[in-house]
Amino acid sequence: TAELDSDVIIIGAGPSGAIAAALLRQKGHQVTILEKQHFPRFSIGESLLPQCMAFIEEAGMMPAVEAAGFQYKNGAAFHYDGRNGAFDFREKFTPGWGTTWQVQRDRFDQILAQEAEKQGTPIHYGHEITAADFSGEQPVLSVRTDDGRQYQARARYVLDASGFGRVLPRLLDLETPSEFPVRVSLFTHIEDRIDHPGHDRNKILITVHPEHRDVWYWLIPFSNGRSSLGVVVRPDMLDARSGEPMAVLQQMVSEDPNLSEVLANAQWDTPVREIRGYSRNVRQLCGKNYALLGNAAEFLDPVFSSGVTIAMKSASLAVDVLDRQLRGETVDWQADYAEPLMVGVDTFRTYVNAWYEGSFQDVVFAENPSEQIKAMVSSILAGYAWDTDNPYVSESERRLGTLAEICRA
Ligand code: FAD
Asked: CATH code for 184-276?
């Protein structure tokens, strides 16, 4: 017999798990979250997109997040070898939020999880899923607690929101290789001390390496005078450099004159971390009595800060289908969850491919682009990648190709 029984069990209390829990509770379902770690815990993914504000609002968590005083964000700035490009998300084609925040994820994720708890979802921290059996009528999960206990948990339905833990993809053998080449990211937090007149704290700054156009840096300022700083490179480029990770990251920053100037007074006070080969794919997003949310499903690439937005969108879509299923309706997870989710994921995929191939960089750094085209591209960068009224969503590949040609000409 199972020690824990719940209508829905969610694996992981990150953004996708917390938002899914809140939305399910609103619809009257019993939900339990099992989370391996104890919060607050570090997570990468600090630059949000305006599209995700709609889900924070829908989940009833906006007042709590607003009260935290995170850094306001209204767009994305780009720099490449002396050239600047900036997008203001308030000037966009799709209606909806045009601003958002840059967040320290340990605090942000803890707030979302606490709000989900207040709304009636128990979260068991230090409880790790180690095995899963979906062969019976109801799924049964094996859980190991960090004080060494083992038990079984049963649910009518399981949502896997375990992020890079990728619990069900691993346990049910759903993983497939990503179509993106392996990339490595080195990152840290710094006391930024930025007084550069050209720098705008309200935007993420993406810098393209002056010599290697597939290498880029992020600078994400927070509201407390600190910033997240990272670089994304090919593994061979990194392996060719010797030294401690911090020295390597500092050396890479020194290779871009603009970024070096912006960070001239920065205090490097935090160890540098590395993540390698984070892009992932799966065979299917749903199966008998389970669905994969957020990063547990698929992770493309960090360049457009789309991770948390996709995670929350997946939670919102999945809850609508699951609610109908739990009320006894016949549902089609593939048609009502997987396919609609992939509309936006595939839009981002087109732009990620075009970024590394160079054509989207030509668009970003184009001089005098038309206001209308800029607004459509701005919408996508703001996360409105599911808005099929936007031709840069519905015909993303063709439109982007033509646009890049115009910009190059
Ligand atoms: P997570 O936030 O990862 O939460 C998953 C939770 O599941 C964790 O708390 C974990 O402890 C728990 N868990 C794992 N295994 C188990 C288990 N066995 N049992 C129980 N619990 C478990 N996204 C952005 O939006 N903006 C960015 O600027 C951005 N930058 C990024 C930069 C890099 C280099 C990378 C690699 C990613 C970046 N992302 C960014 C993506 C972002 O990190 C993720 O998309 C986002 O955190 C996904 O949220 P989630 O809810 O799916 O999972």
From this structure: 3.30.9.100
